[in-house]
């Protein structure tokens, strides 16, 4: 039986274990299992890979998507450009050919990119030329990378003022006319804090706006509800989640 898993902390919220073990593997007739490794320190991943020789690949989630990079031997172009990794393929090798004689080589990929791109593309209209990306974490990096590739001008919005980002208090109703895509890459609105939402001038939203929330639990977040009330098109992160999981499987099966 093939083995895959997830490293992150905490993992109570994780969708992947259920998706792979209860849907994807049985439906595709794949003889494999998926296990969670809840690790507060990303360095612990090396011990896991060493002690579990059947392990072929890992997903990597909060808070390790950026911190894992120095532990890897190689990055895909997209992972390097975004600076965030959520998929790791393990190549077992002769110890003498590996870093510190550890007996394996690790390559990092980013499947959030394909998940976000393939789920937002069908919703894009010619007037969607500018986007606000809320939050500056690992997922936001993948989102900004995709928007750039799609030719959409984007600005980051952060709680912290700095030269690369706007702050929430700088968002005016006039600006919302220009920025017709808003992507929530913050945890605001996620279960169990379902009453929270990013501070935006929601009253300035129209039917021309597209509000995309990376959160998938709950199905309709407060951010989406407030957008939908103004006639905006809204989407949650569930399709992205499924698409990125399938993309991870494809990365693990690369030669
Ligand atoms: P992360 O690295 O922790 O980053 C979240 C960012 O949100 C932070 O960098 C921060 O940016 C901002 N933030 C954090 N707490 C906040 C608060 N209380 N109020 C306002 N802003 C806050 O997390 P991530 O990995 O990027 O994930 C972000 C969200 O996307 C999570 O909800 C995650 O579940 C979801 N996600 C979904 C998918 C999917 O497939 N659907 C994939 C990946 C992630 P500033 O400090 O700059 O404000």
Can you describe what's shown?
This protein is an alpha/beta fold. The chain has two domains: 2-110, Leucine Dehydrogenase, chain A, domain 1 (Rossmann fold, 3-Layer(aba) Sandwich); 114-240, NAD(P)-binding Rossmann-like Domain (Rossmann fold, 3-Layer(aba) Sandwich). Helix content is 30%, strand content 23%. The protein contains eight helices and twelve strands. The strands form two sheets. Strands 2-1-3-5-6-4 form a six-stranded mixed beta sheet, sandwiched between helices. Strand 1 (2-8), helix 1 and strand 2 form a beta-alpha-beta unit. It starts with a strand and ends with a helix. 38% of the residues are buried. The model has no long low-confidence stretch (mean pLDDT 97). NADP nicotinamide-adenine-dinucleotide phosphate (NAP) binds next to helix 4, helix 5 and helix 8. The site of NADP nicotinamide-adenine-dinucleotide phosphate has 25 residues, from helix 4, helix 5 and helix 8.
Write the layout of secondary structure elements.
Blueprint: E1 2-8, H1 16-28, E2 32-38, H2 44-51, E3 55-60, E4 74-75, H3 77-82, E5 87-92, E6 104-109, H4 112-120, E7 130-134, H5 138-149, E8 153-158, E9 165-167, H6 173-178, E10 181-184, E11 210-213, H7 222-229, E12 233-235, H8 238-252
Parallel strand pairs: 1-2, 1-3, 4-6, 7-8, 7-10, 8-9, 10-11, 11-12
Antiparallel strand pairs: 3-5, 5-6
Helix pairs in contact: 4-5, 4-8
């Amino acid at each position: 039986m093939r083995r895959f898993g997830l490293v992150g902390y905490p993992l109570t919220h994780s969708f992947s274990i259920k998706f792979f073990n209860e849907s994807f593997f049985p439906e595709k007739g794949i003889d494999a299992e998926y296990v969670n490794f809840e690790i507060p320190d990303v360095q612990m991943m090396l011990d896991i890979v060493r002690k579990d020789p059947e392990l072929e690949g890992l997903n990597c989630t909060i808070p390790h998507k950026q911190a894992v990079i120095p532990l890897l031997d190689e990055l895909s172009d997209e992972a390097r450009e975004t600076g965030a990794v959520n998929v790791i393929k393990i190549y077992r090798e002769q110890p003498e050919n590996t870093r510190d004689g550890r007996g394996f080589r690790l390559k990092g990929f980013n499947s959030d990119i394909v998940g976000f791109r393939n789920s937002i593309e069908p919703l894009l209209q010619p007037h969607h030329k500018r986007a606000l990306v809320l939050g500056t974490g690992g997922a936001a990096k993948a989102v900004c990378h995709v928007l750039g590739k799609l030719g959409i001008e984007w600005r980051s919005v952060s709680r912290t003022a700095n030269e690369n980002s706007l702050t929430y208090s700088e968002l005016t109703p006039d600006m919302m006319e220009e920025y017709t895509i808003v992507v929530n890459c913050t945890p605001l609105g996620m279960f169990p804090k379902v009453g929270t939402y990013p501070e935006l001038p929601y009253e300035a939203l129209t039917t021309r706006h597209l509000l995309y929330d990376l959160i998938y639990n709950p199905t309709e977040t407060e951010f989406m509800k407030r957008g939908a009330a103004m006639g905006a098109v809204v989407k949650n992160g569930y399709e992205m989640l499924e698409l990125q999981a399938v993309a991870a499987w494809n990365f693990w099966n690369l030669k």
